[in-house]
DUF4440 domain-containing protein (uncultured Cytophagales bacterium), 225 residues
Amino acid sequence: MTGMVWTLMGLMKGWAGWLERAHAEAQGGCDGPLCGFVGERVANPAGRFPYAGECNRLPLFPRTAMRILLTSLLLTLALPVCGQSKPENNANRSAKGSTADALMDEWVSSWNRDEAAYIENGLAPDAVVLLGNGAPLKGKAAAGKDFVRGQMPLVSNLTVKAADSGMSSDLAYQTGSYTQRIDKPAGGGQPYTQTGRYTFVWRKLPGSVFRLKSVLMAADPAAAH
């Protein structure tokens, strides 16, 4: 395996452990900071997240399922880069993003400009989005509907701080921390600032264009509103 694959393995292992701790905390009730981050729009006693699911929905996505999802995602991403070690040539990268950091900067700028159609177009056909410990959104249609068009009207002022990033001939990723404004909390609560962690992974499709393959985002427990 290439260095990129080993790096992603480390990132996924860290995410699995972090989500497991968040899930264990949420099992105690809806006061858990990650309780049902993605799901049906229902009343949330704590009013913390724009999408809040009932706590009795948590067993649908237990700790074992988290590990299976992350492991499957890693294997899906890793296969195309196994055995490849040559650095990517600028001429073969996407027109607007020659590095992983540039891809992320472009995505954040487009998100903050409410360019939903542009971001949807940039999703891979088999995109996977995982927000908090909610059920994963699988496929371009689901990710576009529930993540892009579902979340974009509810939040603003997204900023990211990269902790690590990398790029190979077929894969690019960035991981770090984020801050965003929750403008429309569930239950009509007051707007607040949310912080959390993220990992974005892009895969190159035929035609030398990078598309967003996976999004992992989860609010920090300490940042619960």
